[in-house]
């Protein structure tokens, strides 16, 4: 039986400054995540490019530690022990982002949000609320569908079309208001425009009376977006006042600085 004790660093380890087995273990976990959390060994070999003996060895260790599980169909899934790590990382992400969200709120007067894509849903991981009496109450931890929210569309726009379609799934897009875009062709046209102009709008698509402007956070280790949201009339007035020549550049500048902090 192969020893599980730490081996001496290889030439590749020394060249990269890391431990190759650890790097490969995380490579496998990311390959599992990219596969929707479930994959066979042959699928992991194809997506990760790692040799099968290496995958066998690493998977056994990950299963023993609870980070991967094997189901009855001989497939492997992400394990429950990752949940605690993800929840803690999510809380820290919100903490790291808070100064930047506060800056965005002060610049616009409206609620600033930070969100990531997780399991086909948008998860709000950070927020600084507007000081105004009428404000949004999208709490941290809330999960929403990506096709009908500003941050969701900003997240989808960071993926290629195949990945975005995988996130949306094969079921019809759910309508939340009369303004929700439920046609995938129309949605993907919006995403193409969002990539060109650098921002996306949710105009009462998730909730009547609420408008949201969102931008991507470049350089983040996972698709991430920030937004300002508020009553529809007030956001429109903010856009008209700034003419979108000031509002969006401010948002993108803050997002860029936040991305540098979050970059691996």
Automatic annotation (TrEMBL):
Residues 19-80 form the HTH iclR-type domain. Transmembrane segments: none annotated. InterPro entries: GAF-like_dom_sf (IPR029016), HTH_MetabolicPath_Reg (IPR050707), Tscrpt_reg_IclR_C (IPR014757), Tscrpt_reg_IclR_N (IPR005471), WH-like_DNA-bd_sf (IPR036388), WH_DNA-bd_sf (IPR036390). Residues 81-264 form the IclR-ED domain. One of its GO terms (biological process) is glycerol metabolic process. Keywords: Activator, DNA-binding, Glycerol metabolism, Transcription, Transcription regulation. GO terms for molecular function: DNA binding; DNA-binding transcription factor activity. It holds the Pfam family HTH_IclR. May be an activator protein for the gylABX operon. This is Glycerol operon regulatory protein. It comes from Kitasatospora gansuensis. The lineage of its organism: Bacteria, Bacillati, Actinomycetota, Actinomycetes, Kitasatosporales.
């Amino acid at each position: 039986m192969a020893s599980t004790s730490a081996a001496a660093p290889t030439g590749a380890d020394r060249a990269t400054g890391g431990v190759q087995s650890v790097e490969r273990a995380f490579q496998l976990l990311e390959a599992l995540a990219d596969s929707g959390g479930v994959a066979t060994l042959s699928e992991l070999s194809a997506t990760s490019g790692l040799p099968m003996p290496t995958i066998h060895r690493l998977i056994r260790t990950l299963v023993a530690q609870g980070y991967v599980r094997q189901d009855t169909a001989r497939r492997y899934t992400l394990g429950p022990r990752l949940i605690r790590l993800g929840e803690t990382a999510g809380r820290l992400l919100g903490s790291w982002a808070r100064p930047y969200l506060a800056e965005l709120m002060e610049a616009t007067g409206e609620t600033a949000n930070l969100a990531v894509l997780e399991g086909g849903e948008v998860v709000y991981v950070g927020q600084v609320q507007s000081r105004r009496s009428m404000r949004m109450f999208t709490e941290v931890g809330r999960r929403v569908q990506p096709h009908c929210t500003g941050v969701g569309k900003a997240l989808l726009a960071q993926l290629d079309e195949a990945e975005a379609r995988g996130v949306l799934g094969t079921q019809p897009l759910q309508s939340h208001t009369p303004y929700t875009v439920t046609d995938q062709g129309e949605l993907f046209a919006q995403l193409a425009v969002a990539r060109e102009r650098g921002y996306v709008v949710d105009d009462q698509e998730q909730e009547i009376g609420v408008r949201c402007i969102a931008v991507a956070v470049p350089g983040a280790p996972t698709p991430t977006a920030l937004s300002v949201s508020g009553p529809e009339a007030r956001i429109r007035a903010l856009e008209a006042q700034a003419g979108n020549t000031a509002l969006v550049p401010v948002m993108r500048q803050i997002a860029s600085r936040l991305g540098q902090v979050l970059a691996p």
